[in-house]
Amino acid sequence: MNSDPGRAIGADPRPLIGEPLPLDLLNSRWIDESGEHDLLEYPGGVGIWLSSAGLADTAPHNQETLDALLATRTALAALLDGKADSAQAVDGLNETLRHGRLRRRLGPEGPETVIDTDSPSWLPAWKAADAYLRLLEENPGRIRKCANSECVLHFYDISKSGGRRWCSMAVCGNRTKARRHYTRHKRSAPVPDADR
């Protein structure tokens, strides 16, 4: 594991960015032709993720922030992929939520809601957990894993029909269509005559 998450060095290398915060955190792990990747383990990966998520100035780019993000990502993955004890996953997400709270106050422009966290390092993880709750309240059926069985990315389907299946039609959708086309044509190809 990266012992010094450090400041962001370079652009976000992930194939899918811009999803709602909890899914964006999940998508900090991905698989491509060169293998498995984990942005949070890259040198400067915490800074890259915070910057890409619009949270660059909300938390220090340190080990505590990394640990909070990893714990939250683990809970979210277990909840969405169903690969772990659901009670344990719920407890994991609730543990993140215990590190913060919403506080109402009257500010110069009128009523405000501010987030108080135990430490600034917990703010991005807390925001991701809170945003997950909001997605569940809005439309949990729109939270999806890519239909490509070899892909680990998640997305929130905002299409009008609600029929989005792929993290990216250009990548996973086309690969799946090409694979089906190849399989279909391979089966229908004539078998060479062995007597010739």
Summed up:
This protein has 196 residues and is α+β, with helices and mostly antiparallel strands. It is 41% helix and 15% strand.
Lay out the secondary structure.
Layout (H helix, E strand, L loop, with lengths): L20 H6 L2 E4 L2 E4 L6 H8 L10 H19 L4 H12 L2 E8 L2 E8 L5 H16 L4 E3 L8 E3 L12 H20 L8
Antiparallel strand pairs: 1-2, 3-4, 5-6
3D architecture notes:
The protein is of the alpha+beta class. The chain is built from 6 helices and 6 strands; from the N terminus they run H-E-E-H-H-H-E-E-H-E-E-H. It has helices spanning 21-26, 45-52, 63-81, 86-97, 123-138, 169-188; strands at residues 29-32, 35-38, 100-107, 110-117, 143-145, 154-156. It has a two-stranded antiparallel sheet with strand order 1-2. A two-stranded antiparallel sheet has the order 3-4. A two-stranded antiparallel sheet has the order 5-6. Helix 4 (86-97) crosses helix 5 (123-138). The longest helix is centred in the C-terminal third of the chain and has 20 residues, at 169-188. The protein is globular, with a radius of gyration of 21 Å. The chain starts with 20 loop residues before the first helix and ends in an 8-residue tail after the last helix.
